[in-house]
Design goal:
The protein has about 280 residues and is α+β, with helices and mostly antiparallel strands. It folds into two domains: about 120 residues, Aminopeptidase (3-Layer(aba) Sandwich), CATH 3.40.630; about 140 residues, Aminopeptidase, CATH 3.40.630. It is about 35% helix and about 30% strand. The protein contains eight helices and twelve strands. Strands 1, 2, 3, 4, 5, 6, 7, 8, 9, 10, 11 and 12 form a twelve-stranded mixed β-sheet that branches. Strand 1 and strand 2 form a beta hairpin. The longest helix is centred in the N-terminal third of the chain and has 16 residues. The N terminus is likely disordered.
C-alpha cells in the first residue's frame, strides 16, 4: 500500500506506543457510539451499529495472504445481511496492517478508499507546556448539553467540512440521551455563530482518550481555535486519569499536532463498501 507524500514524510513511528494502541484501542475495542456493540472473531474485531443506518465497520484484523480474501468476503456477507440495501460497511485500515497488500485486496472486493489520515498519539504529560490556557480572543467554547446545541454542532460541521451535519447532530443527540450528565462535545462560538465543533471519547481501562472533529470554518482557520479545543479536551482527559490522547489527523491538523508533541504512528484509510 502506498500513500501521498504528505502522509509518508517524517514518518518514524514509536513501536511501543503503536503496540499499546493496537492492543488497547483496536484488539480490545469497546463500542464508541450509543447502542452499538463490538464483536470478535479469530480474524477481526467489528463494530455493529444499533440500526442498519448507523456506523458499521471492521476495527482490527489479524490476517495473512492465505486468509485475507476469505475473511473479506465473509465480512461483506455478514454485514450485508445486517444492514441490507442502502447500508454501508467501513474497513478501517492502518498502514501497518497485514498483509501488506490488504488495501488492494479490499479494493478488488469492491471497497472504495477514502481520504487517508495520520494516526497521532501523545502522552498527556508531554503536552501541557505547549497548549494555550484560553481560547483566542473573540472565541468562546460552549459545552454541548441540549438538543439546540446539537444543531450548533451540525452547523459548525457543515461550515468546516461542507457536509456531515446531519450525522454529527444524530451522534450528539444519541450521546446526550445515553449520558446526559457528561459533556463530551464542545462548540467554538465566534461572532455569534458556531465555527468549530469537537468531541472527546474516554476509553475506560485503556489509558486513552480519543479526540474527534475540530475542523474549523475556513474564515476562522489559523487563529488557534483547533489548538484551544485540543487543550481543553486534554485537560479534561488528564483530570479523568487518562495517559494518552489519540487523534486521526488530516493534513490541515497534522502540522499543529506535530508542534504540540504528538507522534505519528501510522496512516489510517477508510475503505467503504456500499450494499
Amino acid at each position: 500500500m502506498t500513500f501521498p507524500t504528505s502522509h509518508a514524510s517524517r514518518f518514524a513511528p514509536d513501536k511501543h506506543l503503536l503496540g499499546l494502541f493496537d492492543a488497547r484501542m483496536r484488539a480490545a475495542a469497546e463500542p464508541d457510539e450509543p447502542g452499538s456493540r463490538v464483536e470478535r472473531s479469530a480474524a477481526v474485531v467489528r463494530q455493529v451499529g444499533a440500526s442498519p443506518r448507523d456506523w458499521h465497520g471492521v476495527l482490527y484484523s489479524q490476517l495473512d495472504a492465505d486468509t485475507a480474501d476469505a475473511v473479506i468476503s465473509a465480512e461483506i456477507a455478514y454485514f450485508g445481511e445486517l444492514v441490507g440495501p442502502g447500508g454501508a460497511l467501513e474497513w478501517k485500515l492502518y498502514s501497518h496492517d497485514r498483509p501488506a497488500d490488504l488495501g488492494a485486496r479490499l479494493a478488488a472486493a469492491g471497497f472504495r478508499a477514502g481520504e487517508p489520515e495520520t494516526l497521532f498519539v501523545a502522552e498527556i504529560t508531554q503536552l501541557a507546556a505547549g497548549l494555550p490556557e484560553a481560547p483566542p480572543q473573540g472565541v468562546t467554547l460552549r459545552a454541548v448539553t441540549t438538543a439546540a446545541d446539537a444543531d450548533l454542532v451540525a452547523e459548525a460541521t457543515e461550515a468546516a467540512f461542507g457536509g456531515g451535519g446531519d450525522r454529527a447532530r444524530a451522534r450528539v443527540l444519541a450521546r446526550l440521551a445515553a449520558d446526559p450528565e457528561t459533556v463530551w462535545t464542545w462548540v467554538a462560538m465566534a461572532d455569534g455563530r458556531p465555527v468549530s465543533a469537537a468531541r472527546m471519547l474516554v476509553h475506560p481501562g485503556t489509558g486513552f482518550a480519543s479526540l474527534w472533529g475540530g475542523g474549523t470554518a475556513p474564515e476562522w482557520r489559523g487563529r488557534g481555535i483547533y489548538r484551544s479545543l485540543v487543550a481543553h479536551r486534554m485537560r479534561l482527559a488528564a483530570a479523568l486519569g487518562c495517559e494518552f490522547l489519540q487523534v486521526d489527523a488530516t493534513d490541515q491538523s497534522r502540522p499543529i499536532l506535530e508542534r504540540l508533541g504528538f507522534r505519528a504512528l501510522s496512516v489510517t484509510t477508510p475503505y467503504e463498501y456500499h450494499f
